[in-house]
Amino acid sequence: MTSSQPEVEAGDADGPTDGAEIAAAVSAAASALNERLEERLGTDRPIVTIMMGSGLGGLGDVIEDPLEVPYDTLPGWPQPTVVGHAGRAVIGRLDGTPVLGLSGRVHLYEGGSPSRVAFYVRVSAALEIPCLFLSNAAGAIRDGFEPGELMLLSDHINLTGRSPLFGPVVGDEVRFPDMSAAYDPELRSIVLESAERLGVTLREGVYAAVHGPAYETPAEIRMLRALGADAVGMSTVPEVIVARALGLRCCAVSCLTNFAAGVTDEPLDHSEVIEVSKGVQADFQRLVAASVARFG
Ligand code: HPA
Questions:
Q1: pLDDT tens for each residue of 129-146
Q2: Is residue 1 part of a domain?
Q3: CATH code where residue 204 lies
Q4: Ligand 1 atom 9: the closest Cα is on which residue?
């Protein structure tokens, strides 16, 4: 990585769409972030990038000896606009394991290109961070799954109608990535075992990704249930698709924040989503820390 950076406009809502321009923007952001990684971790490299979903950004506060890097100091980094997404990278250690924490992401419904949504995954790969631990808030569809519980993703259904790989191939990415084990079986076992050891309830299921931002109708939730979805949310899947095209190992945990529309008579409310995920944060943090220690 060189320190000479191509000019990339920070805060550009859509960002570049040309493959070479995306690669240049990724390289510029990776170069800037790499300097901060070296400043805090020396020659150690994070073994995992942890994306903290809605209301789960508190994990950033338990990263030891943290170096905080606001997203707006990194060239070309997509700026989140949603309440509950602070927008900072946190470099440090979790129970001694070097990590790159990311608090705040952009979503498809914010209007940028799908490639913007996956920008940080490309940067993680450029930094040679081999694992990606994603988290999100999701509505519970499956009978017996309750708000306030965590769910490990076993698989997903992409109903966003979009792909971050649409368009020219970027760098060394695989054109047709295999998605038959998108959520790494070994990482999943580690997370499940960690949950059991910690006494944290961890469901396992299929996540349906929708575009949003409107929540679903009860009829749509009946359709998702019939399709085999156990939970529904508006993130994560674009990132996993790019991660697989780059050979990163993924795992993801949903915080079930509400019953999906029509499962009960309760209306859905974003502030409740944030409240419930904050209530689960302590368990989420213990689970992530115990798991990533075994990812290396
Ligand atoms: N639907 C979609 N996205 C969500 C939900 C939901 O019910 N809860 C949290 N994110």
A1: 999 999 999 999 999 999
A2: no
A3: 3.40.50.1580
A4: 138
